[in-house]
Amino acid sequence: MKNLTDSFVSVGHWSSAGSFEFNTDILATNPINLSVVLGVLIFFGKGVLNDLLDKRKQRILSTIRNSEELRREAIEQLEIARVRLRKVEIEAEEYRTNGYSEIEREKVNLINATCNSLERLENYKNETLFFEKQRAINQVRQQVLQQALKRALGTLNSCLNSELHFRTISANIGILGSVEEITD
Hints:
Layout: H1 2-8, H2 26-94, H3 96-159, H4 162-183
Helix pairs in contact: 2-3, 3-4
């Protein structure tokens, strides 16, 4: 117990009553600093992260609603095309002797065009959802990282001397460079 208290306060070794001394024992002070930084990040970052996720959720839901509307329109177009197809089939019976092959070609073209439209709309919906999801993830990552770095740098600025401060800034610039390369 004596050794534990000596690592924090060494009363017998004070040269004068008014002096102040930093504890440079990294193993004794680092867990405390890390727990404070993590606590601050969790406390302040949680609300921001929740707000960002709620906004992204609303945008994604809006995109889904738009995609569903496009799907309904495509289904309506398909029903219209089916009505036209029935009409063409009736006319085909009437004109079977005169132009059966011409009518059959028109029918196939109409079905193919409708199928192609449905496929394009479905592909557009899927691409939009994937893009919005990726964009939301990237935005949340960037904003959380930026806020965490701001708070951590603020804490470090108040605790470090100029030499340690310079080394920490250099290390963080290197980390940010590698994070930007990864996100690109």
